[in-house]
Write a structure and sequence with these properties.
Chain lengths: 611, 352
């Protein structure tokens, strides 16, 4: 049945391909080819994404949470500064937000989420945030949106070094070094970084401080590319991250918990230009994750742990048949093994097939179609699809539409947790629609997207008959809302001013209780103003989140603002840049997660050298 | 899943009732929360706080979060149980590692006990001292203990090391019995503590996963043992049982095995009747009977249960994300009299 559908789709594509293959020719530039970025750029018709500028990352280099919460539509549930930080889009949950590292979905196989304080912030060349479902291209959990962390391997001459060293309140330290050297044959990038903080800030309006909040992490990255000849190139991506954290107290309970995790992501890619239009990319990837949880961090001999190992193989065929028509087919295999103190060792094998088509029908109208079918040993995977259409009305206005069916497969915890795991779970399914409006002028752009997401068979853990917490496919939710962003850039002589704002409205309901879902703000807003004059630059950013329901309590709405100034010492060798940032300048008392206060006003000194 | 109240325990330990029965004149309420029911809500495990609801005996007054409101502070994360000594209520926050001491009629805070608690569960009183069961660290099977509280200073004066997972604790004269439900594992013993010397006197092997305890009319110790249900993680069922221990010889007098599939979460001894409950049913038997009933008297979701004055009180934690309810049943007709919405994860029920 499923296999039939795939064959049918292949057949369909073949016809479409033939119809349009006689169109004008195109030459793919293998030198700057990035498979993962092309997925977001070329095969995401009708979807909008935000590119996070390098300068924003450099400024907030300690944590991706800080970068994204001020510059995208993502809402973060932070268990206090530096603690577990889970992203959510459009009223969905953290396990409905997929994180894609160089094209590989890296959401945890154990809990389905990515902790944004357990991945490096300073390891990527390109960070993109794509709103809307993307399970066809990005796999399980790509329901609310996806976050793309990419490294670019390009064969063009360069050599540069970048050093960042920051110091701030609560003895918070960051150091990172990034080295890149490339010519027309080789590319090498090595990155190192580490963060440390005592993180013992005061809880405003109480006598408590953030006890047991210390954290340390370090990353080591190597990205290497070798161009064998005009037709063949090899790329190796490797990123290793280690974190040792204590898990801080709450307003209502002390803590002496500790948590250590290490993850290593490795990807070997071979690009083979079959012709001037066709690229065949073969990828093998090995991803290792291990955590240890300490109930008492003074006694490291006792812990619970979990390890997952993933082996992924993919063959990706890309054909730019013409400037107007692109097709892409992927077959993939993934084998995941998980072992841990709370569940028996288990292995999951997944085969997947994806077909994508991108077609410029007329000068104004274009569309993209994608389908996916997974086959796996644990359960039946739904047939997934995505359709996106873009109509350019004039130079300034583009209307887009997309619809997709997405899924999240049960995690190893859901299936095998002892006690409670439920091997009879089905994948969660989600169907969505979106209408987007893009208005672009020379210095000014607006984007307004309205979405509808209906998800069913959501997995929820509740006590079963034997009073053991166990997951079942019970919940059904419906999220509607819109996202609005406006960007403005103005330059007069040496003055450069930019404004970026994002506003989202989300009405997300449990269809049984008709209540707003927990941890979903109805209104959320962020804004950034950047000003640059000669060697000086300054910024002001703010974030507003509406109150959110958390079980029977409400986390109050909050607004926080940061302000910073930086100066480039152009007289000194290598022109170092020094900056000073005041976070939470109005000393607002706020929480993202109930009873886990965030710091009041605090300071950070930044230094950055490029040579 | 944690369990059950200890009203019978308070009644039998004698302290409370001596203070209440001191005169026969009509009594004025001793505080806003006299003459009513207290419901202890565990609250959210993740950063939340326990709360207490009050419902007056005539059902006309209901109030939530009474401790939190009176004192403008929180009890702490997961209100596991409340123990009563004279007019004092000892509110035990399990994850909060804190015991808040308040007047039980006004809820006004007196003091708090924090140091030297680690996963505290239940408290019992003997010899002018409080004895609190503590699980210790999650992965440490050897650090479990009983914290001994000097009730004049309300400080912890010593710790008694015991086997893993000390759960309920009950006083019988100057002796205390501790059921080792097992904490993060599963136990099968009851410890006897000498309250004068603060020492472990004996370890009594009982059924699997012993939990609730009561002293019956003959002075014997009754223990309900949950056993272990058959699940995919536990392929071999271990039957539940009712164990009776002679408190003089500390020997098991009788063990009644329960039917397959019957794993009691709670046991209440009240007015000569023994109530056993699972997560969906309540069974009732004569305390002297050796036959376990096969059909329940009440079918409803049970999280916590208590019996008082010929009424059966049952809490329902619903989906553990929204406020739960308290249902009150007539213990003779078994019909439902009333249902109240209470707090998040309502568990124990106490009577003022």
């Amino acid at each position: 049945m499923n296999v039939k559908r795939i064959f049918f789709a292949v057949f369909l594509f073949a016809i479409v391909g033939n119809l349009y293959s006689q169109k004008d020719s195109v030459v793919v530039n293998l030198n700057a080819f990035s498979l993962s970025i092309s997925k977001v750029k070329d095969f995401s018709k009708g979807y909008s994404s935000i590119l996070i500028a390098d300068s924003l990352v450099t400024r907030n280099i300690r944590s991706l949470t800080d970068v994204l919460k001020f510059n995208s539509f993502i809402y973060f549930k932070e268990n206090g500064l530096g603690m577990v930080s889970s992203p959510a889009f459009r009223g969905t949950s953290a396990s409905h937000t997929a994180v894609i590292w160089n094209g590989i979905n890296i959401n945890s196989q154990l809990n389905g989420q990515v902790d944004f304080n357990a991945i490096s912030a300073n390891s990527y060349d390109n960070i993109m945030v794509r709103s809307g479902g993307g399970s066809v291209l990005f796999g399980s959990g790509a329901i609310g949106g996806t976050i793309h962390l990419d490294n670019l391997i390009e064969f063009s001459n360069r050599e540069n070094h970048q050093i960042n060293a920051n110091y701030g309140s609560f003895n918070t330290q960051h150091f990172s070094y990034d080295f890149k050297k490339a010519n027309n044959k080789n590319y090498l990038n090595i990155g190192l970084g580490n963060n440390y903080s005592d993180n013992d800030f005061k809880y405003l309006n109480t006598n408590l401080i953030n006890e047991n909040g210390e954290f340390f992490n370090a990353n080591f990255d190597v990205n290497y590319g070798y161009k064998i000849n005009k037709k063949h190139q090899l790329k190796l991506y490797s990123s290793t991250f280690f974190a040792d954290r204590n898990l801080s107290r709450t307003l209502n309970a002390p803590s002496n918990d500790g948590y250590k995790d290490i993850n290593s992501k490795n990807l070997l890619e071979w690009n083979f230009a079959l012709s001037t239009k066709e690229i065949l990319t073969s990828r093998v990837s090995y991803i290792f994750e291990k955590f240890k949880f300490f109930d008492n961090n003074k006694n490291k001999a006792l812990f619970s742990d979990g390890t997952t190992q993933r082996k992924i193989g993919q063959i990706d065929y890309n054909n730019s048949i013409s400037t107007k028509l692109k097709i892409n087919g992927i077959v993939g295999f993934e084998s995941v093994t998980a072992t841990g103190s709370s569940f028996d060792s288990n292995t999951r094998n997944i085969f997947s097939g994806v077909l994508s088509l991108n077609h410029q029908l007329t000068k104004q109208l274009s569309y993209g179609v994608q389908i996916r079918q997974d086959i796996q040993n644990d359960f039946e995977s739904p047939f997934l699809y995505s359709l996106g259409v873009e109509q350019k009305f004039n130079r300034n206005y583009t209307l887009s539409f997309n619809t997709s069916k997405n899924f999240r497969i049960p995690t190893f915890n859901d299936l095998y947790w002892n006690p409670g795991g439920n091997i009879n779970l089905k994948p969660e399914e989600s169907v969505q629609f979106e209408i987007g409006n893009a208005i672009n002028f020379e210095n000014l752009s607006f984007q307004l997207n309205a979405f509808y997401i209906k998800s069913s068979d959501l997995i929820q853990w509740i006590p079963n008959q034997s009073n053991i917490w166990s997951p079942t496919n019970t919940d059904e939710t419906r999220n509607i809302g819109f996202e609005f962003s406006a960007n403005y850039e103005m330059s007069i002589r040496n003055h450069l001013i930019t404004f970026n704002t994002n506003y989202s409205f989300t009405d997300a309901r449990d269809l049984e209780t008709n209540q707003q879902l927990i941890s979903v703000p109805k209104n959320s807003f962020n804004g950034l103003m950047n000003y640059q004059y000669k060697n000086w630059s300054a910024f002001y950013q703010l974030l507003y989140n509406d109150d959110v329901r958390f079980l029977v309590d409400t986390i109050p709405a909050f607004q926080i603002s940061n302000v910073g100034v930086a100066y480039q010492l152009s007289n000194i060798k290598n022109k170092p840049k020094v900056g000073f940032i005041v976070n939470n300048i109005y000393n607002s008392n706020y929480q993202n997660t109930l009873n886990r206060p965030m710091p009041g006003i605090n300071f950070n000194i930044t230094t950055n050298i490029n040579f | 899943m944690n369990f059950k109240k200890a009203v019978f325990l308070v009644a039998l330990s004698g302290f409370l009732f001596t203070s209440c029965e001191s005169d026969n004149e009509p009594q004025l309420p001793k505080g806003d929360y006299d003459n009513g029911i207290l419901i202890a809500n565990e609250g959210s495990f993740s950063g939340g706080t326990g709360t207490v609801n009050f419902i007056s005996d005539d059902y006309t007054v209901t109030e939530e979060k009474i401790y939190n409101k009176v004192n403008n502070e929180n009890i702490g994360t997961v209100l596991q149980s409340i123990g009563f000594y004279n007019n004092d209520a000892y509110l035990i926050a399990n994850v909060g590692n804190k015991i808040s001491l308040a007047d039980k009629f006004t809820m006004k805070k007196i003091t708090e006990i924090t140091g030297d608690l680690n996963n505290p569960r239940y408290i019992a009183f003997a010899n002018g001292k409080g004895f609190v069961t503590n699980w210790g660290d999650g992965f440490d099977t050897t650090d479990d203990f009983i914290a001994v509280i000097d009730l004049t200073t309300n400080t912890i004066e010593s710790k008694i090391s015991v086997a893993e997972g000390p759960e309920q604790i009950i006083a019988n004269g100057d002796r205390l019995y501790v059921s080792h439900k097992g904490g993060f594992g599963s136990g099968n013993t009851v410890s006897e503590i000498n309250s004068t010397t603060n020492s472990l006197v004996s370890i009594i092997p009982v059924g699997s996963v012993p939990d609730e305890m009561a002293i019956d009319a003959s002075g014997n110790l009754l223990i309900s043992c949950e056993g272990r249900a058959e699940t995919s993680w536990n392929p071999t069922e271990v039957l539940g049982s009712l164990v009776t221990v002679n408190t003089v010889s500390n020997e098991v007098i009788s063990t009644i095995e329960l039917a397959s599939g019957f794993h009691p979460n709670s046991m209440v001894l009240n007015a000569g009747n023994l109530y056993l409950s699972t997560s969906s049913s309540v069974f009732k038997m004569d305390a002297n009977s050796t036959t376990i009933p096969t059909s329940p008297i009440i079918n409803t979701t049970v999280y916590g249960i208590s019996v008082n004055d010929n009424k059966v009180y049952i809490t329902d934690a619903k989906d553990f994300q929204n406020n739960g309810t308290l249902k009150i049943f007539d213990a003779t007709t078994n019909s439902e009299l009333k249902e109240f919405t209470v707090g998040l994860i309502p568990n124990k029920i106490y009577f003022n």
